[in-house]
Design brief:
Elements: H1 5-12, H2 19-28, H3 39-57, H4 64-81, H5 87-97, H6 110-134, H7 145-164, H8 173-181, H9 191-200
């Protein structure tokens, strides 16, 4: 759901967020996330983004046959790891940081794309946390225990995915309690031993959302 325009306008008038952080929030709500686009929209967005990335960064696009493969792999990469982003955000990330990479003349590849999108996603996550704290309090239906447990599970999964990318997220005390209640941890291991075991097993996810 898009953030209220008035809320973003009010943020610009305060010192709660920097101008760059406000821009990221604006881009976050500028268009539909990739996961909400239909397959045709996704394919068209990927093709357009690769052309824009080529113009912004100077990275070389491969020939026709390899370009088709690149389009396919970039599409899969976005849906697997960056589906929470929208096309406007990805374009902004490259326009904002892509020109600073000393990779002129290189062909576009997934590794180069990660160099921009992983830091952007990390910054976006931190800004979104600040956004939640700044949102005006509204009356809502009280959460029950299952609501909180599902929220904890979502946070655990986000932390696990961040660790897989090489980051060191905060491991909250309720992570271990939640995992034990879900029967996922061995009786003798602690939260850190559990995470090391899962990372070592090349596990894709700790929790998978049901459709």
């Amino acid at each position: 759901m898009p953030a209220p325009t008035n809320f973003l306008q009010n943020l610009k008038k305060t010192s709660a967020l920097t101008p760059d952080e406000v821009i990221i929030l604006e881009k976050k709500y500028a268009s539909k996330k990739f996961k909400y686009l239909d397959p045709i929209e996704q394919i068209l967005a990927v093709k357009t983004l690769l052309l824009k990335i080529h113009v912004i960064t100077g990275w070389v696009l491969p020939g026709a046959e390899l370009k088709n493969i690149l389009n396919d792999q970039f599409h899969k990469k976005i849906m697997e790891e960056y589906s929470e982003l929208n096309p406007d955000e990805i374009e902004y990330a490259f326009r904002n940081k892509g020109t600073g990479l000393e990779d002129w003349g290189k062909e576009v590849n997934l590794n180069l794309l990660d160099k921009i999108l992983i830091p952007y996603l990390d910054a976006r996550f931190a800004i979104s946390q600040n956004e939640e704290r700044l949102l005006p309090v509204s009356e809502s239906i009280p959460w029950n225990k299952e609501d909180f447990i599902n929220k904890y599970r979502s946070e655990i999964e986000a932390a696990f995915q961040a660790m897989k990318k090489g980051y060191n997220p905060i491991i909250h005390i309720y992570f271990e309690e939640t995992l034990r209640e879900d029967g996922m941890m061995l009786e003798a291991e602690n939260i850190h031993e559990f995470l090391v075991r899962k990372l070592g097993s090349n596990c894709d996810n700790l929790y998978v959302k049901e459709n």
